[in-house]
């Protein structure tokens, strides 16, 4: 790694160090860094426990436990400068222990983690929001387990075993190399996935998905998924006679549909549940600061916008990455078909006002956004 001196047009190498040289500890430092920065692994993870020891008849404890966007449990084991010889066996044991955890147990484990960290948040609600689910009851958790190893250096017996597990048994396991660097008074940390390399990982995922798709039957959607499909089909047929906004959107088993607004990562959404029918402008760009920037700029137009739409609920969601601005009809139930006409009528009338009211402000903000973040 090098630092660039623009004035002299030269580069200077930054010294790589060991964690021990810099006085860093595994639990006090590396583990804390990872827990509070899940983006270090290049994906969204919801951490649900740290130093977890809730295994029967053993005093062993795993470093970090998380949920990924598919509802799988992610077992994370950290080592500092040396992986050691037995880390693969160690983490396989942890994965086997975790494989038997029920949804209720996972919820309770996460709730204990929240309480221990002084949070009043609800584990069911957080998991549902993280997985973009309507409610906790429909969620499937722990259908599979994944393993992540983090270390400054890996011994050959570890990398050899990991590669064998990957290629022979398609075990979902990743190795990340963590390297600290020192430059003047600053310390940098590089966390890079080394097994599998990104290209190989994507290929493996594609092949696994293809095999799963070929093996799965095309059974008709049942229960709540079929209800949603039926509602969306009926609603879109009516709405599309009044607007082209959703003309290219198909019915879905999800409880939301989204149409583009002209600004990437910002959608005009319909959302339905057993409690409400909602229209919203939803900001879900990958960078939280960009979402907050868009929201704050839109808020400057609040008075003008609400002259066209009526009263809106402005939710900046400071503790979340996304933001939303919504109108909501309460006391209606998707699963009561007698409510469908009222829900559809409300969302249609709301969206027909929402789209034109936000179009011009979003177009202006798009220009400001590119300047602010130099897209």
Number of domains: 2
- Got a strand count? 14
Query: Any idea of the CATH topology of the largest domain?
Result: Trna Endonuclease, Chain: A, domain 1
Terminal CA distance? 25 Å
Question: Could you characterize the architecture of this molecule?
Answer:
This protein has ten helices and 14 strands. The strands form three sheets. Strands 3, 4, 5, 6, 7, 8 and 9 form a seven-stranded mixed β-sheet that branches. A hairpin with a 5-residue loop joins strand 10 (256-260) and strand 11. It is an alpha+beta fold and 375 residues long. The two termini are 25 Å apart. It has two domains: 14-215, 3-Layer(aba) Sandwich (Trna Endonuclease, Chain: A, domain 1), CATH 3.40.1350.10; 223-373, Yope Regulator, Chain: A (2-Layer Sandwich). It has helices at 26-35, 87-98, 103-116, 123-130, 156-169, 198-215, 223-239, 288-299, 302-309, 340-373, and strands spanning 2-5, 10-13, 15-16, 46-52, 62-67, 73-78, 145-151, 173-183, 186-195, 256-260, 266-272, 276-283, 313-315, 323-330.
């Amino acid at each position: 790694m090098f630092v660039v001196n623009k004035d002299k047009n030269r580069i200077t190498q930054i010294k790589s160090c060991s964690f021990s040289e810099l006085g860093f500890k595994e639990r006090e430092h590396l583990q804390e860094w990872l827990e509070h920065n899940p983006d270090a692994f290049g994906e969204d993870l919801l951490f649900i426990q740290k130093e977890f020891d809730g295994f029967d008849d053993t005093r062993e404890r795993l470093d970090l436990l998380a949920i990924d966007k598919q509802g799988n449990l992610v077992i994370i084991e950290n080592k500092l400068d040396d992986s050691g010889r037995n880390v693969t066996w160690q983490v396989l044991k942890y994965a086997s222990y975790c494989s038997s955890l029920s949804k209720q147990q996972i919820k309770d484990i996460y709730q204990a983690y929240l309480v221990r960290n002084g949070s009043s948040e609800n584990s069911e609600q957080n998991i549902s929001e993280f997985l973009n689910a309507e409610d906790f009851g429909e969620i499937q958790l722990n259908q599979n387990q994944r393993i992540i190893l983090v270390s400054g250096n890996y011994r050959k017996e570890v990398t050899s075993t990991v590669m064998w597990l990957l290629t022979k048994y398609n075990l979902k396991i990743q190795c990340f190399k963590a390297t600290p660097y020192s430059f003047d008074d600053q310390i940098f940390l590089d966390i890079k996935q080394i097994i599998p390399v990104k290209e190989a990982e994507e290929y493996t995922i594609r092949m696994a998905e293809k095999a799963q798709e070929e093996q799965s039957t095309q059974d008709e959607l049942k229960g709540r998924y079929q209800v949603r499909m039926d509602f969306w089909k009926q609603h879109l047929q009516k709405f599309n006679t009044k607007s082209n906004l959703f003309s290219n959107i198909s019915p879905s088993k999800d409880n939301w549909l989204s149409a583009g607004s002209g600004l990437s990562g910002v959608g005009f959404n319909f959302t339905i549940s057993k409690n409400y029918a909602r229209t919203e402008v939803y900001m879900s760009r990958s960078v939280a600061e960009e979402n907050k920037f868009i929201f704050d700029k839109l808020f400057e137009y609040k008075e003008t916008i609400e002259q066209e739409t009526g009263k809106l609920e402005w939710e900046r969601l400071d503790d979340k990455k996304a933001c939303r601005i919504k109108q909501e009809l309460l006391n209606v139930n998707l699963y009561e078909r007698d409510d469908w006409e009222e829900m559809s009528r409300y969302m249609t009338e709301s969206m027909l006002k929402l789209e034109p009211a936000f179009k011009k402000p979003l177009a202006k903000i798009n220009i400001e956004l590119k300047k602010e973040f130099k897209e």
